[in-house]
Specification:
PH-domain like; 5-stranded antiparallel beta sheet; about 200 residues; alpha+beta; 2 domains; elongated; 8 strands
Amino acid sequence: MASWRYFTKGAAGFRATILMKNPTSQALSGESAETIESKRFQISRVQLAMLASEEYVRSFWWIVAIIPAFGLIAVLFGHGVLQVVGLTALLWPFSIPARSVLSSSRAGKLLAAGTRMTADGTAIYLHSDSGGGMKLDLASVRDLVVRHGYYLVRLRRLGFIPIPVECLELPEERQAFEAQVREAVTARLGQTAKA
């Protein structure tokens, strides 16, 4: 099941899409979830690469530690080809930011161009001024953390989407957004435990 879907509707079509009442837009309590809209925000490619690099290192710290350690041992005690492989392993962590930029290019273009976020209890919608955007089903969310002034909406497939905390101006909006995402994660985990 693909959690991201690309849509290219105008602002009126987008609003009609998210305000349509459907059976899956019910919160855990059975009531309709509140629609939360953010102000416009931009995240530069450099910021996105740094967030992605940090998220990668936090998730796979043991790999980031083991590969350079092997590289150092191979450079110091190896001969010939083994030293070349060791040097490559030693330098490998420096490629993480570049790979982060490449792996987040589609979302990066959208976030760098200027985006607004809307959440309705079943999905998070990112939409640009040009009419394009993305939809993230909350069923595909693994976790929500706040780091460096961003909500990092972590996905089950080890990706994430950063949303600046300050783009939700009111504390009530922030609490409602956090509650929507956490309720979706709790509901998904409850369904998984029952299965």
